[in-house]
């Protein structure tokens, strides 16, 4: 039943901070995570785009990347924070391993680890460092989560799809608790060159902090990024039995496919419209009840126009819209999870995060873009995502009840 799944813990490692609250505070201060790529020399790698939003791991993490891969280390670190934030200790009796599941998404998995192996000998750990399900599996292994184990790999909608999968596991009673989220670390020569070749990346190399410009008329592509986020979802009854106050409620989710083209969405945005409408129906929420949209808003010319078209078809009067990738960059399969954390924090604090660099409104993206942090009464918020292959996802959150 809608409304029975609540968020009780948040964890994140993003280009804005090593924790969920550090990331939120930087976001609300309109601090950008963008800068020159430091992981390798992009000029030597023949990359057109020389900028990215790199994440910094804390000094100590529960695992080491040389054993599990960087993207899995990011996920385990975010999960560690989320579990503690929810008031759990995996050593306590409340942590019933068989009833704790994982749903951690990744679009690509360990691409840097693949490239390193091409340059070097093949390690016995090679396969288990790059597979796209290993973030979810490592979270399961490290924290003894023996319930359902999922790993959506649906491009840039994967993080939202992981949330939807986790919500449904809790609804069905196949898990009391789900660790839901996404992780991505793709900052490597092939990763950058691949998106370069598609002309998907911004080339504002001299102004990295101004490069991601969702819904702006002068946008020229996204800024690639890395990071991870995990949310603890559990049944309301389970949270109440533990004496825990929820942060937010997961009311419903929707998914759809465009069924048109792997990278070019249809002009009428019909697939994304159906996805959002399904999420609202699942949540039993009328469109006019939505107070805020955390948009996918990648800063690509076609993508932002497509999303604006969908929002204006769903809503008679579109609610305030934020594009947080303007500050975090685009973390691909992790983006929907990171933005779910931001959506929960929006509901928790009653503050709308800003969209940076929205300076010249695009008439083809006629939505009310939030450009400055502001307080607001937010009872219902929508998180939207879309990905290559024509896949769409949306999740509806409400405040803690």
Automatic annotation (TrEMBL):
GO terms for biological process: fatty acid biosynthetic process; isoprenoid biosynthetic process. Pfam families: ketoacyl-synt, Ketoacyl-synt_C. Keywords: Isoprene biosynthesis, Transferase. It comes from the Archaea. One of its GO terms (molecular function) is 3-oxoacyl-[acyl-carrier-protein] synthase activity. The keyword Transmembrane does not apply. The keyword Isomerase does not apply. Residues 2-399 form the Ketosynthase family 3 (KS3) domain. CDD domains: KAS_I_II. InterPro entries: Beta-ketoacyl_synthase, Ketoacyl_synth_AS, Ketoacyl_synth_C, Ketoacyl_synth_N, PKS_Beta-ketoAc_synthase_dom, Thiolase-like. PANTHER family: 3-OXOACYL-[ACYL-CARRIER-PROTEIN] SYNTHASE, MITOCHONDRIAL, POLYKETIDE SYNTHASE-RELATED. Belongs to the thiolase-like superfamily. Beta-ketoacyl-ACP synthases family. NCBIfam families: PRK07314.1. This is 3-oxoacyl-[acyl-carrier-protein] synthase 2. It comes from Haloarcula pellucida.
